[in-house]
Amino acid sequence: MHNKRLIWQLYPSQLLITITALLVFTWYGTSSIRSFQLSETATSLEAQAHLVATTVGGYLSHNEIAALEAFCREAGEKSATRLTVIGPDGKVLADSDEDPLRMENHSDRPEVIAAISGKMVPSVRFSQTLQENLMYVAIPLQDEGQRIGVLRTAIPVTAMERALAAIYQKIVWGCLMVAVIAALVAWFIARRISKPLEQMRSGAERFARGDFVVRLREEGAEEVASLARALNEMATQLNIRIQTIIRQHSQLQAVFASMVEGVITVDTEERILDVNQSGAKLLNVDLEKIKGKSILLAVRNTHLQNFVKNSLACASPIEGEFTSRMGADGQEKFFYAHGTRLQDRQGHIAGALIVLNDVTKLRRLESIRRDFVANVSHELKTPITSIEGFAETLLDGALDDPEDARRFVEIISKQASRLHTIVEDLLALSRVEQEARREEIVLQESPVAEILQSAIQSCSARAEEENMVISLVCAEEVTARINPALLEQAVVNLLDNAVKYSGKGSKIRVEAERNVKEVLIRISDNGVGIAQQDISRIFERFYRVDKARSAKMGGTGLGLSIVKHIVAAHHGNITVESSPGKGSIFTIHLPVNV
Ligand code: ADP
Question: 40: which of 97, 152, 280, 468 is 20 to 30 A away, CA to CA?
């Protein structure tokens, strides 16, 4: 429905009331004046009639018509009143203004009829005789109880009516002026009432749009001013609350968005209400596209779907673990999930909150640790079993044969030193790992050539045994931020491998150079090389391509692991280029600006 503006509701009704009141007042006033005037005139006419009634009655009872006529003319002239004497039959006997013979029978005149019946009823009408409006009053004439006629007095009312018309006109003009003034005042009042209300309406509309800067003027009538005050107060309170809500919402959003855990909220129909960035990433879905979709369609993982179902069904929080291959890389991921049913204040189920933790790394570490323990045990078991076996053989009598005894003791010694090497390597590995974790490894800008020289020195005896030549190409001024002892150990391990896995007389090159971004230390050999599929695994602990060869060479499978950790502690990385039968190049990349 179209609502009218307040001013158009107030103004016409005010105007209507004013005009109606004026019209009623005018009508009442003028009609009162008129009836007062008429009744005054009638009273005066009646009084005049009574004054002359005795005289007229005298003439009439003596039948002195001529004298009666003369009296009527004289009295009528003097009193400016028309006098008419009418016989009981209605015949006009005398008249002050007209010849009675020319006048018709007056028995039908209302004032005459009334007078005959003993009443006095004035009558106003147009006189054919005088051609103007007259007021007539008639009284009965009696002689000794006998009705002998009717005396009628009349006076023109045209003058009075003219005067009354002038009064009417003045009143109408006055009314019109009052109506105009009243209309203006009504308009002004209506404007005064509606204007602040209109301002309040537009202010309230701005509040509704969230614009709380605007303030309503607290002025005008007390009611309007206090309404404006109340609205302003409401706007202030609303603004504070909205700001608080916005702040809390953005804080929550920030927390929600920056959480490492994936958070998904679903409604009771299992439709996704919200999901944070981590959640979308974990599930490998598009954040915006899945909102509002059913979890069944959005995420194709039955474990998660069942978990959501259970979370909605269970009153207490639930936990669970499941795997998935939903990731972009298609690799298996491990999720640890928390599910909590959400309830509103009335206790109605509103949905469920699922928190997903990617525990893939943890599970992999656990499996690595398990494998590591198994590997260590396995690695240690071989030499220990061997030592145990040969020691028992010696005790069982082999000691008596000096040649066997010597051979067995030599084996025991060899296995013991293998044990020693394994333990040494394990200790070195755990030391580097621990120090790196605690950030205890001190790096300082040092010349690289010296370290390479010293590493070559350490391996030279073994290289010479194999007729190998180790060459070094490194400018004296090449420096890097390093821990000299650790880097030397890494280079020694790489050189040791190069010697172990290259044939007699091979050439081993050690080079170092510095470019804008990094210092490169390259150890290349032309040995057996490494197959492509093994390259990614050789840095794993205890991984060996050729177990027998490694063992024969005294390898533990830990050398490259140690190298990898040392390089990582230097914030660098190590790359390998190799082709079976041709040789391998191990390159340590050390960043320049660390
Ligand atoms: P290991 O003690 O057995 O040498 P590492 O961790 O040092 O253990 O090396 C792991 C494996 O990588 C070795 O068993 C070997 O198969 C391979 N490897 C390492 N360096 C070389 C190299 N320079 N040439 C060929 N194979 C190598």
Answer: 97
Please work out whether the CB of residue 555 comes within 6 Å of at least one atom of ligand 1. yes
- Among 284-293, 482-491, 492-501, the range scoring the smallest mean pLDDT is 284-293
DSSP at 101? G
pLDDT computed for residue 554 by the predictor: 80
pLDDT digits (tens, 9 = 90+) for 339-380: 999 988 888 999 999 999 999 989 988 988 898 899 899 889
DSSP state of 294: B
Taking CA 22 as the corner, what is the angle to CA 21 and CA 25, rounded to the nearest 5 degrees?
A: 85
Distance between CA atoms of residues 450 and 469, nearest Å: 18
Nearest CA to ligand 1 atom 19: 497
Q: Which of 375, 524, 538, 565 to mutate to test the pocket of ligand 1 (most atoms within 8 A of CB)?
A: 538
Q: Is residue 559 in contact with ligand 1, taking CB distance under 6 Å?
A: yes
- The pLDDT, as a whole number, for residue 5 is 67
Q: Which domains does the chain have, with CATH numbers?
A: 7-163 (3.30.450.20), 259-358 (3.30.450.20), 364-437 (1.10.287.130), 441-591 (3.30.565.10)
Q: Hey, what are 214's tokens?
A: 């605007």
In percent, the amount of the chain with pLDDT more than 90 equals 47
Distance 469 CA to ligand 1 centre (A): 19
Q: For residue 295, which of 284, 286, 306 has the smallest C-alpha distance?
A: 306
Among 501, 541, 578, name the best residue to mutate to test ligand 1's pocket (greatest count of ligand atoms within 8 A of Cβ).
501
Strand partners, 333: 324
Task: Grade residue 328 by pLDDT with cuts at 50, 70 and 90.
Answer: low
CB 453 within 8 A of CB 489: no
Interval between CA 557 and ligand 1 midpoint (Å): 7
The label of the residue with tokens 């070195």 reads 428
Maximum mean pLDDT: which of 286-295, 302-311, 330-339, 548-557: 302-311
Query: What is the DSSP secondary-structure string of 23-49?
Result: HHHHHHHHHHHHHHHHHHHHHHHHHHH
Q: Report CA(458)–ligand 1 centroid distance (Å).
A: 18
CA dist list (Å): 308 to 268, 304, 315, 500 = 10, 6, 13, 56
Whose Cα sits closest to atom 23 in ligand 1? 498
pTM more than 0.70: no
Write out pLDDT tens, residues 425-436: 999 999 998 988
